[in-house]
Design goal:
With about 300 residues, the protein is an all-alpha fold. The protein contains ten helices and three strands. A three-stranded mixed beta sheet has the order 2-1-3. Helix 3 runs antiparallel to helix 5, helix 7 packs antiparallel against helix 8 and helix 8 packs antiparallel against helix 9. The longest helix is centred in the middle third of the chain and has 34 residues. The radius of gyration is 21 Å and the shape is globular. The protein starts with 10 loop residues before the first strand and ends with a helix.
């Protein structure tokens, strides 16, 4: 393989599940269907949040950002994985690998912060309902989202630079279906203990800190809900937050199992399966969880379809 310079290649080989060719065929079909459903679900949420005036609220502003991130994440990793699963050529260009790594790390960090922002939004809605629109004014919502994106992308610049400048000494086979930091660190022919320590510290910062803030927010929410005398009122309050809690459990549980567990605690196949769940299944579940029992979204979708049918 042609060397790009002393430490990198012009192309990398993504091994994926190449050791189990029968599994790749099944994965191709499952991943393709899941990707299309995920793209459709998240696309509908973004479209409804833009076109439906009743959904022009902080909650759906944050949700549309979450859906946009999920679309970017799946589009960054899934098409390349499908090509590798279906064909004999399992290579990815150096630029493509850097792009995958940068976008995946960026969006992972942004989503961690955004989910904590959404928890604060639910706290304001439940605990301070009379002042909710004053607290969560449009300027603050924009500032919170912009901060999440800036921090996520700033961290990714550092992570990508530290990872992709490591000397590889002839290694170009990535034991994964996309380029991620732990898999790339295994290719290095030098001591990566500093990189691993830095990755662990950043993982704690982006996982433990936001999760702690989310737990504090929901502690206050639970206390406020239990003070409601009406059982119907309590169920309604819990219903507005239940979907967010489920997304938090799935998202943070998956990432913590990937980045805060000892590397030797599970096989690489398990690690790839967890990454596949995070990058594909979670973006599919998010729109389903947020819309399955959401009357506002269902009503907005019916109105949008009704308008489209009349115009047609």
């Amino acid at each position: 393989m042609e060397r790009a310079n002393d430490s990198t290649f012009s192309r990398f080989i993504l091994l994926g599940f190449s050791g189990r060719p029968h599994l790749e065929t099944v994965l191709f079909v499952v991943i393709l269907i899941t990707y299309l459903l995920s793209f459709l679900g998240n696309g509908i949420i973004i479209l409804l949040s833009i076109l439906e005036p009743r959904l022009h609220t902080p909650m759906y502003f944050f949700l549309s950002n979450l859906s946009f991130m999920d679309l970017c994440l799946t589009t960054c990793t899934v098409p390349q994985a499908l090509v590798n699963f279906k064909g004999k050529d399992k290579t990815i260009t150096y630029g493509g690998c850097v792009t995958q790594l940068f976008i995946a790390v960026s969006l992972g960090g942004v989503e961690c912060i955004l989910l904590s922002v959404m928890a604060y939004d639910r706290y304001a809605a439940v605990c301070c309902p009379l002042h909710y629109m004053v607290i969560m004014h449009p300027q603050l919502c924009l500032q919170l989202v912009a901060t999440a994106w800036l921090i996520g992308f700033g961290n990714s610049v550092m992570q990508t630079a530290l990872t992709m400048t490591l000397p590889l000494c002839g290694k170009n086979q990535v034991d994964h279906f996309f380029c991620e930091v732990p898999a790339m660190l295994k290719l290095a022919c030098t001591d990566t203990s500093i990189n691993e320590a830095e990755l662990f510290a950043v993982s704690v910062l982006f996982l433990v800190v936001p999760l702690s803030l989310i737990l504090v927010s929901y502690g206050h929410i639970t206390h406020a809900v239990l003070m409601i005398k009406s059982a119907q009122g309590r169920w309604k309050a819990f219903g507005t937050c239940g979907s967010h809690v489920l997304v938090v459990i799935i998202f943070f549980g998956t990432l913590i199992s990937m980045y805060l567990q000892p590397p030797t605690s599970y096989s690489q196949d398990v690690n790839k399966s967890i990454a596949l769940f995070y990058s594909l299944v979670t973006p599919l579940l998010n729109p389903m969880i947020y819309t399955l029992r959401n009357k506002e979204v269902k009503g907005a979708l019916r109105r949008l379809v009704g308008r489209a049918s009349k115009e047609g």
